[in-house]
Amino acid sequence: MAYDEGLAERIRQVLEGETGVSEKKMFGGLAFLVDGNMAVAAGGDGALMFRRDPGRDDPVGEHIRPQVMGERVMSGWLHVDAEGVASDDALREIVGRGLSFARTLPPK
């Protein structure tokens, strides 16, 4: 499934002006990397996944759950459905979380 172009554009707007950001198509989505480390990715149907500290207990709930690829739970990643990023404020918060954690990693 192709990634959601509208969501990708919204993510670009959130990341506008951030240093070290690049884009790369991967996993059927469009990943946004910070200094070579993936921070967030636009998927299909308006959903996204974002990077988080795997040692931290992030809240999961109605619109956020662990990211699963195939049968494997992706440690350090959470999936957010379209409703979870429907508002610009929610999208900024989620993208900011992914961006903040990616900035703690050494550049690639």
Note down, in words, how this protein is organized:
This protein has 108 residues and is an alpha+beta fold. It has helices spanning 5-15, 88-102; strands at 21-26, 29-34, 37-42, 48-51, 64-69, 72-80. The model has no long low-confidence stretch (mean pLDDT 92). It has a single domain (5-102), classed as Alpha-Beta Complex (Aspartate Aminotransferase, domain 1), CATH 3.90.1150. The chain is built from 2 helices and 6 strands, in the order αββββββα. 31% of the residues are buried.
Summarize the SSE layout with pairings.
Layout: H1 5-15, E1 21-26, E2 29-34, E3 37-42, E4 48-51, E5 64-69, E6 72-80, H2 88-102
Antiparallel strand pairs: 1-2, 2-3, 3-4, 4-6, 5-6
Helix pairs in contact: 1-2
Short key terms for the protein model shown above:
108 residues; alpha+beta; six-stranded antiparallel β-sheet; 34% strand
Mean pLDDT: 92
- pLDDT below 50 for ≥5 consecutive residues: which ranges? none
Indicate the structural class: alpha+beta
Q: What strand order characterises the main sheet?
A: 1-2-3-4-6-5
Total DSSP E strands:
6
**What is the CA-atom radius of gyration, in angstroms?**
13 Å
Tally of DSSP helical segments: 2
End-to-end gap: 28 Å
Beta content: 25-35%
Shape: globular
